[in-house]
Every structure is written in structure tokens, then in C-alpha cells.
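Ticket #4471: structure export looks truncated?
Reporter: QA, pipeline team
Priority: medium

Steps to reproduce: submit the single chain below to the structure queue and open the exported record.
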Amino acid sequence: MMMQMLETTDVKEARRSRIAQFSGRAATLKVGGSSITGIVRAVKEDTTGETPRWIVTVIEKQPRA
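Actual output as written to the record:
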């Protein structure tokens, strides 16, 4: 298992991540041009800049063989 920390400024993406975190199901997050599927462990809002951003911690699911 790999744990990754992703950063997003998309409000909808952050909301979907938080819903997936509380429901305990896997979510697919799009970052850059790629997508990551996994279990969301944490969603933390960072309001230090002018635009709000969210740090999302995801445990990536291994692809099934």
C-alpha cells in the first residue's frame, strides 16, 4: 500500500473526498492528468493563501490482477 498526499483547489473534489472519507469507500481523485483510486484517510483545509486549498491523504488501492 502506498500513502499519497494530494493537493487540490477544487471545492467539488474536496467535498467528494470528505464524503468518501466518512463513508469509508474508495474514491477516484484526478490530479494533474492522472487519477488515483484509494481510501481517503484525511482531508485538511489550508487557508493560508488567497485561494483555499485542501490536502487529501489517500491510501492507494492496488490494481487487481
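Status: closed, not a bug. The export was complete when the record was re-opened. Leaving a note from the reviewer for reference: The first helix runs from residue 11 to 23.
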